[in-house]
Amino acid sequence: MNTVALAFDLGGTELRGALIERGGDVVARVSAPTLAGAGSEAVIGQIITLADKLLKEHPQAKVTGIGMCAPGPLDPKAGIVIGPPTLAGWHNVPLIDILSRQFGLPVRLENDANAAALGEWRFGAGRGAGSLVFVTVSTGIGGGVVADGHIYHGRRGLAAEIGHM
């Protein structure tokens, strides 16, 4: 098996995880209803459980890192989930630190709408476009901007947070 990343999409209603090859091919998927009202410790426990399940089912996987997307607002540089309205008890949670200590791997945190925008730009409807604006309406409302192949975060990391204006 090629090298893979552990990828997680933390949503207000569903937590999804996957092993993904560098080219974007999904090797395996898992999901569970998010324990959104139970607080950050319970949900982080869910993330760890799903990751362990993926790794147990694919012991040959060479995991190089973890990509985590979560609803905003969040600080992707510091790796902190600031306080999304769809997740009770998530106030300034240092998610990158927690997960990197748990797994001994580098972790990247990104706003879920930004991650979706980059995915569409790289693999989906926006493939080949110079720039892209993405809007999502799900448990929350969000947006992402990709300009010249890079997520536009803005000065405070909250660009395109249209659900928090």
**Gyration radius, rounded:** 15 Å
Helix content: 10-25%
Count of DSSP strands: 10
Proportion of residues in extended strands:
35-45%
If helices are DSSP runs of H or I spanning 4 or more residues, what is the number of helices?
Answer: 3
Number of domains: 2
Description:
This protein is of the alpha+beta class. It has 2 domains: 3-110, 2-Layer Sandwich (Nucleotidyltransferase, domain 5), CATH 3.30.420.40; 113-164, ATPase, nucleotide binding domain (Nucleotidyltransferase, domain 5, 2-Layer Sandwich). Helix content is 24%, strand content 35%. The chain is built from 3 helices and 10 strands, in the order E-E-E-H-E-E-E-H-E-H-E-E-E. The chain has a 5-stranded mixed beta sheet. The protein has a 3-stranded antiparallel beta sheet with strand order 8-9-10, covered by helices on one side. The longest helix has 18 residues, at 40-57. The protein is globular.
Any descriptors?
165 residues, alpha+beta, 2 domains, five-stranded mixed beta sheet, three-stranded antiparallel beta sheet, 3 helices
Brief rundown of the structure:
The chain has 165 residues and is an alpha+beta fold.
Topology at a glance:
Blueprint: E1 3-10, E2 14-21, E3 26-33, H1 40-57, E4 62-70, E5 74-75, E6 80-81, H2 95-103, E7 107-111, H3 112-123, E8 131-137, E9 141-147, E10 150-151
Parallel strand pairs: 1-4, 4-7
Antiparallel strand pairs: 1-2, 2-3, 5-6, 8-9, 9-10
